[in-house]
Amino acid sequence: MVLPVLHGPFGEDGTVQGLCEVLGLAYVGCHVEASAVTMNKLTTKRLLVAAGLPTPRFLAVTAPEWASEPDACLSSCLALELPLFVKPARLGSSVGISKVVSAAALPAALETALGYDDLVIVEEGIDAREIEVAVLGGDPPTASVPGEVVPGHEFYDYADKYLDDACQLLAPAPLTGSEVSEVQRLALRACDVTGCDAMARVDFLLDRREGRFLVNELNTIPGFTSISMYPRLLGLSGVSYPELMDRLIALALERHARRQRYADASLRPLAERSG
Question: Counting CB atoms within 10 angstroms of each CB, which of 84, 108, 141, 272 has the fewest?
């Protein structure tokens, strides 16, 4: 049994999960495909849009596009209207992310993001509250009570997450009953669309102007520290930390056994022919 406690590339993006599959090991968390899909913010956004789930407007910028047609890239980005968030498409922990409030700052933000990835996603900035829901796999899966992140900086950046205690984590979030039901529904739907089968933290923006939830991204290996939202929200939803670990391990063992049965079934015709 492997319990990945890794964030970002080579840990959360399906590579370690794929290694476990090759070695025939059960592992906690989402399977290879869901891990890879949700690590790529652009792929995730496209799946959400295709499924009719609300998400901020966005576009992609690649390193070759920026190198060959910088003016066209800037024009396309600014068509989304300021402010903008510029992010490496396949990274986590808010590394390389910039909030852009002026056209003059956009080139530097793109250069920063392209220093971490050759694929960048540019999103419209929305005046919103940051809401999170923990989802635990099962039949049916569990969507926790929502929590709220109140950033201590201009947005919930790397320093807020790891370096200081400026942000506030409100659990549960101050929401109405109907808002809680809606964000839980969207969280379960987002996990279904992206194939997250074991655990995920689904991050939302609650648009202050329009009052609607927008799916921002999914994290398949959410934090498990003493202040992390994922175990905290599930604890408030009646799933204690020991029970959470037991359920995650049980889900991993069940999936491993199921995949082994399918593998044996697929190999049986070959064995019969060779016999």
Answer: 272
Average of per-residue pLDDT across 71-96: 92
Cα distance between residue 211 and residue 224, in whole Å: 30
Three-state DSSP class for 78? helix
- Decide if pLDDT at 103 tops 70: yes
- Residue 181's φ and ψ, nearest 5 degrees, are -60, -40
CA neighbor of 222 nearest in space, from 35, 82, 21: 35
How many whole angstroms separate alpha carbon 188 and alpha carbon 265?
A: 31
* pLDDT surpasses 80 at 274: no
Distance from C-alpha of 147 to C-alpha of 133, rounded to nearest angstrom: 7
Q: What's the mean per-residue pLDDT of the chain?
A: 91
Quote the Cα angle for 20-23-25, to 5°: 55
| Tokens linked to 93 | 């922990």
- Report if residue 92 sits inside a domain: yes
The answer to whether 204 and 213 are in contact (CB under 8 A) is: yes
Place of tokens 């202050």: 208
φ/ψ (deg, to 5) at 136: -115, 125
Across the range 138-164, mean pLDDT stands at: 74
- Please tell me whether residues 81 and 106 are part of one structural domain: yes
Q: With beta carbons less than 8 A apart as the criterion, state whether 202 and 141 touch.
A: no
Question: Which DSSP category does 104 fall into?
Answer: G
Q: Quote the tokens at residue 99.
A: 């909030």
Q: Six-digit token pair at 252?
A: 């991993």
Domain with 104 in it: what CATH number?
Answer: 3.30.1490.20
Report the CATH number that the domain containing residue 148 is assigned in CATH.
Answer: 3.30.470.20
Residue 80 has pLDDT above 60, yes or no: yes
Distance between CA atoms of 156 and 92, rounded to whole angstroms?
12
